[in-house]
Design brief:
Low-confidence stretches: none
Number of helices: 15
Order of helices and strands: HEHEHHEEHEHEEHEHHHHEHEHEHEHE
Shape: globular
Number of strands: 13
Strand content: 5-15%
Mean pLDDT: 94
Number of domains: 2
Largest sheet: 6 strands, parallel
CATH class of the largest domain: Alpha Beta
Oligomer: single chain
Strand order of the largest sheet: 3-2-1-4-5-6
Length: 443
């Protein structure tokens, strides 16, 4: 091994290196916390000046990510955030944690990855390790990132090092922090793989080396496709069993008592978050290059995409049965985040529900204790700035129906049951709390 590799490996495995993290969002910040707790110093990079300033003031960015540890590290000088990409020459390891959305035509949008790789390349120096964490299709690290890094003459595996390690965050899951989740590591040369394993071995419970970056990219997509397909299955079962007068929630809970051969997944109003609604389409798109159909993936996407429309149909029918036409009615949407107990609205099905409700002539308000103001989103820019309505008896009585889209724990569901004229529950939130009655329906 070259002395440069051995020295860098020693610093990475011992926590003596400076770690740079590009993208201080839902993936980058937990990773920064894990690195700080492992003894590393962290320099964070973000293009949002407000976020950079807030983090340097010691303010947390997200509800489920504690800001006190970052604040303490900022005061101690072991953490700083910056928008100055020229400082990318400073870290020993640079971890790219930027979004990978879809275009309007459901094709991969690698704009953030490409911009980040170009910024890294502009300041790249010998002896740096670069790791892509953004979820993407197999081949991205080698076909997209590597040429950008090598454009200046430095060679991967010799002067610089490149790996892929997929993020495995589950926002709001207190049982598994970043450091408690094994980290898959893949690279196309032994030195890069060894260095990436040394870094993640120092800040996570275990590493899982695989033979290539493409294999590691495929691991992440497989994990998310597994969830997407199984959620589509239970969403379809919900439709089938509902037509038969059978409660799918009761079926799943009973089936889950089998100690082998069954894993419970639960239906809902549609998929949300940056991973499950998006990542399967990355593989389906890449599969077309090899003329291989990805029928399960595409069918699952169709089923899950239809769920918001199904929910609104159920809601409209329920309101119509009360004697008031849905057009002109007042709907209170309960929960705007894409999953319980977090403030993340990315790809939230609640946004699609809001638009569909208003397209049918109803007024739609929302209450979410974790989303006081609806942030800007790419697809629902016109909804930005709306504010959460207080959840009180007056608000509930004024609504023609309450639609539970996200089942946050910090909600008074007993008050909802007592005061709402009609409740349409997509998450089984009421039944789980022993609340039932003729005005509480499941969708």
């Amino acid at each position: 091994m070259m002395p440069r590799v051995e020295e860098l490996e020693r610093r990475l495995s011992g926590g003596d290196a400076l770690v740079g993290i590009v993208g201080l969002g839902y993936v980058g910040l937990p990773l920064a916390l894990a690195a700080l707790r492992a003894g590393f110093s962290v320099l964070g990079f973000d293009t949002n000046p407000e976020r950079v300033a807030a983090l340097n003031r010691g303010e947390g960015a997200f509800h489920h990510i504690p800001g006190d540890a970052l604040a303490e590290a900022a005061r101690a000088g072991t953490f700083a955030a910056t928008g100055d990409m020229a400082r990318l020459a400073e870290p020993d390891a640079i971890l790219i944690c930027v979004p990978t959305p879809l275009t309007r035509h459901r094709e991969p949008d690698l704009g953030f990855v490409v911009a980040s790789a170009r910024a890294v390349a502009a300041s790249l120096r010998p002896g740096q390790l670069v790791v892509l964490e953004s979820t993407t299709y197999p081949g991205t690290t080698d076909e997209v990132v590597r040429p950008l890094l090598e454009a200046g003459g430095l060679r991967v595996g010799a002067e610089i090092f490149l790996a892929y390690s997929p993020e495995r965050e589950d926002p709001g899951n207190a049982a598994f922090s970043t450091a408690q989740i094994p980290k898959v590591v893949g690279a196309d040369d032994p030195a890069s793989r060894r260095l990436a394993a040394a870094l993640y071995g120092a800040l996570t419970v275990a590493t899982v080396p695989v033979s290539s970056a493409a294999c590691a990219e495929a691991v992440k997509l497989t994990e998310n496709i597994f969830r997407a397909v199984n959620i589509a299955l239970v969403n379809e079962l919900k439709l089938v069993y509902d037509a038969m007068g059978i409660d799918v929630w009761e079926v799943i809970e009973a089936a889950a008592t089998k100690p082998f051969g069954f894993m419970p997944f639960y239906p809902g109003p549609g998929l949300g978050g940056h991973c499950i609604p998006i990542d399967p389409f990355y593989l389906a798109w890449k599969a077309r290059e090899f003329e291989v159909p990805a029928r399960f993936i595409e069918l699952a996407g169709e089923v899950n995409t239809r769920m918001p429309a199904h929910v609104v149909e159920r809601l409209a029918a329920a309101v119509d049965r009360t004697g008031r036409p849905f057009s002109g009615s007042r709907i209170l949407l309960l929960g705007l985040a894409y999953k319980r107990n977090i403030d993340d609205t990315r790809e939230s099905p609640a946004l699609r529900l809001m638009r569909l409700i208003e397209a049918r002539g109803a007024t739609c308000l929302y209450h979410d204790p974790l989303v006081p103001v609806l942030p800007p989103t790419r697809e629902y820019a016109s909804l930005a700035g709306r504010r959460s309505t207080p959840l009180d008896a007056g608000t509930l009585r004024a609504a023609d129906a309450v639609l539970i889209a996200t089942d946050h724990d910090g909600v008074d569901y007993a008050l909802v049951a007592a005061e709402a004229r009609l409740v349409v529950d997509t998450r089984n939130a009421m039944a789980r709390r022993g609340l039932s009655g003729p005005t509480i329906l499941k969708a």
